[in-house]
Amino acid sequence: MFRISYIRVLLSALGTIVAFSCVQSPRDRVTRARFLMDTYCSITIPAAEHAQESLDAAFARMEAVERSFNVHTNTSPLYAFNKSGVPVTDSEIVTAMESVLDVCRDSGGAFDCTVFPIVDAWGFYGPHENTVPSAAHLAALRPLVNWRFIAVNRGRLVKLLPAVRVDLGGAAKGYAAHEAAKTLASSGVRSAIVDAGGNIYALGDNNGKPWRIGVQNPRDGSRIVGIIVASNTSVSTSGDYQRYFETNGVRYHHIIDPATGCPAQSGIASVTIMHPDGLYGDLLSTAVFVLGAERGGALIERMTNAGAVIVLTNGNVIVSSRMKPHYIPEKAR
Ligand code: ADP
Ligand code: MG
């Protein structure tokens, strides 16, 4: 079991690959990695006098986000919310949940933060065995899944249906990466790559040049499909190759279509979103994956500050209009 989750983690950490400037030698920068939020997280910053203290502070911030946002442990107010409906008053969580609910609405429920019971039934949480739930089991759970059953009311997160449960697995890592980058910036670090399991925040620039972030080929971890050239932005990837299991030759991945209760089969293999806000980037990558290229692409075009690279299961790559100025396809390099 441990071995399986280790393989999953390695795969999920490879959603994007960052190229560091050739001008810098590895000795000029320092990287630290930790296992947090059920994934591999790393931070790379220039080697400077206070680099270790800055890394300590950034990882402490990520740990704090994990404690607040991890719905599976009682360190989070969301645990009591899920279990017994205790309203959440923590302003950080409530503010984040407002953004989460925005994306639930804007994606027409393709992202649904109440999908918890279904993800659980497929065994995608913790040490559970992965299983294909019966159609009857899924049919019984589907009425519990609807983001409209929770609301922010006078600064408190409340349930409108007692049995509903919230899951922030599709949001917390992007938020944590951006929060760690903010912590680094406030301690004087001007250049950093924070990677929380494929949810990257690229702070500042790379020796005077924009960061170059490779988008992994979802069917070949040793290759990329192209490079995103950008600075001060989040770059988040959701893919069908990050967490999955196979039964009788069928691949079941962890991004669920709330409309069917099954892994989304939208013709997408991976979605990489560029967005100034790490939380939105993470939310949108999951939402677009469920919506598919046409509806998901339209959602991204409607937004003023998001770009997307969508890799289809047939290998075709779709690049949204705001991504185009930042994207170099592999064959053109
Ligand atoms: P990762 O967690 O590997 O970075 P995502 O950001 O795409 O990938 O999030 C997937 C996680 O989000 C799942 O593990 C599950 O916890 C949750 N999830 C799955 N499907 C949905 C959905 N349709 N809406 C909201 N959350 C989802
Ligand atoms: Mg996501």
3D structure, described in words:
- The protein is α+β, with helices and mostly antiparallel strands.
- The protein has a single domain, classed as ApbE-like domains (T-fold), CATH 3.10.520.10.
- The chain contains 8 helices and 18 strands.
- The strands form 5 sheets. An 8-stranded antiparallel β-sheet has the order 2-3-6-7-10-15-16-17, sandwiched between helices. The chain has a 4-stranded antiparallel β-sheet with strand order 1-8-9-18, with no helix packed on it.
- Strand 6 and strand 7 form a beta hairpin.
- Helix 2 packs antiparallel against helix 7, helix 4 packs parallel to helix 8 and helix 7 packs across helix 8.
- The chain is globular and about 55 Å long.
- The N terminus is likely disordered.
- The structure holds adenosine-5'-diphosphate (ADP) and magnesium ion.
- The site of adenosine-5'-diphosphate has 25 residues, from helix 8.
- The site of adenosine-5'-diphosphate (ADP) has 25 residues, from helix 8.
For the secondary structure, the number of strands is 18
The H-level CATH homologous superfamily, spelled out, is: ApbE-like domains
How far apart the termini lie comes to: 40 Å
Q: Which structural class do the helices and strands define? A: alpha+beta
- Estimate the global geometry from the Cα principal axes: globular
Which strand order spans the largest sheet, edge to edge or round the barrel? 2-3-6-7-10-15-16-17
Q: Which bin fits the share of residues in helices?
A: 25-40%
The average pLDDT is: 92
Question: What is the string of helix and strand elements?
Answer: HEEEHHHHHEEHEEEEEEEEEEHEEE
Strand content: 25-35%
What's the CATH architecture?
Roll
How many DSSP helices? 8
Can you list the ligands bound to this structure?
A: adenosine-5'-diphosphate, magnesium ion
- Which parts are unreliable, with pLDDT below 50 for 5 consecutive residues or more? 1-14
Roughly how many Å is the radius of gyration?
19 Å
Overall number of domains: 1
